[in-house]
Amino acid sequence: MPDRTDINIRNFYIFNSTLSSKEEEERNKILFYYPPSIIIDEQLKNVGFSEAILKFAQTFSPDKPCETIRTKKTRQFYLQPEENFWMVMTLNLPAIKPKEIADEAEYLEHDVQDAVYLAALKLAYDMAKMFVGTFSSSVEGKKTKQLKIKLEKFYFRYLTTLKINNLDIMALFQGVQYLPLDPLRFLHIQSSSNLLEAEFPEVESSIILYDNYLVWSGIDYSEMQLISLYVRSLQESSHLDAESENLGRNSARTTNVCRFLTGPKNFLDEDASFESVPVIYLHSSESPTKYYLNVYEAINFTVCMLINEKERLTVELFKKLDKFLGDKLLSLSSKIKSVAPTFQSLQAPMEKFLYFNKLNLAVKTLTAQSKSSLSIPEEVMRVVTDIAVHNRRCCKLSASAETVVKLMKLSDYWVVGKMSDDRECYFILQAKNAALSYIHEEANKMCNLCLKSIFVHK
Question: Which residues are in the CCZ1/INTU/HPS4 third Longin domain (predicted)?
Fold first, then answer.
């Protein structure tokens, strides 16, 4: 049986050509390079190649910079997030290598979809911007050396935890699943958030999640999205079970799972360190504002609190927050836990759908968020991504688009993609020997059943 190698990162680097005016200062233009084991001469060679490619491509397309370079064995992605700053990610393509002929390999270029990995590169910048700030602000403040240190600290951890081989259309959306609540329950959540900010003036805004579903957010959608993604990664990387801790780390209660994911480890230590509380930059206003991001878990709730960096963090503040949130969320849990996303009960064994709203980044899905638990073949998911890219291109010319694809190799599968008014939905149906009219009718039924009132197909 032939060996298969998966997608992996060959290199990832950030550079600014204006930072080196002399040949002996060439290394100054490299702000970050991964992997760090690569010698500086090789780094400069790769950056120089990228500069040449970008300059050459500009000749043919002065208004739109180069985004992708394809070779037999690799795929290289380019992003210019800020003026003069370039981010480059090179992937080794997956390959099948016959054991009998070690030197020959079949490289699976179609397994790497440009739109997915360009979105992943854009997300890598957005996350760094939230934790490091804009690149240009550091350079303008003559803090290039500090910027390099910050980028190394952030990206070495980010890239080693990035599941580059598991990315699919969900990376293209990077959406958030909202918990559907009736008006009364929603008001309970909103009033609790308002009460938190009234009781603790240090807390300027908050985000409330329940089982990773968004319930309430007091900040801009795009920034809420990044924070929720960070919190999810924080939860995944935390192998500590609150019950096994006997709740002694952050709380005096012994009946409920309550803890700070970011904060002091011991409330009895008045000189406790707050280094685990990250500082983030929010850019929704004219000038970026720095906040402490304090994350608290209780029962199935996760509360993210934004505290202005000018405020002083104390153990006493965390004690009071722990008492307030633990009691309040315990009360809310009894009101919320009976509510399950209504669309989950609509799942049919032969039909699955995915919905995305660009306006509020909402995602609804009857698929799973990870391929490990997904019953849909990867080839089908790649077709869904291709349809999404095609429909978005079509919607630049008209208000709506619809695409239907039958997979010839997997004859039971049909994919229907609809897009209208920045809302997208995709249906995956299994129907052997079905006619196109039947597939169209079934997709409309699913649209009316699962997405009634939120997606109007034209």
Answer: 351-445
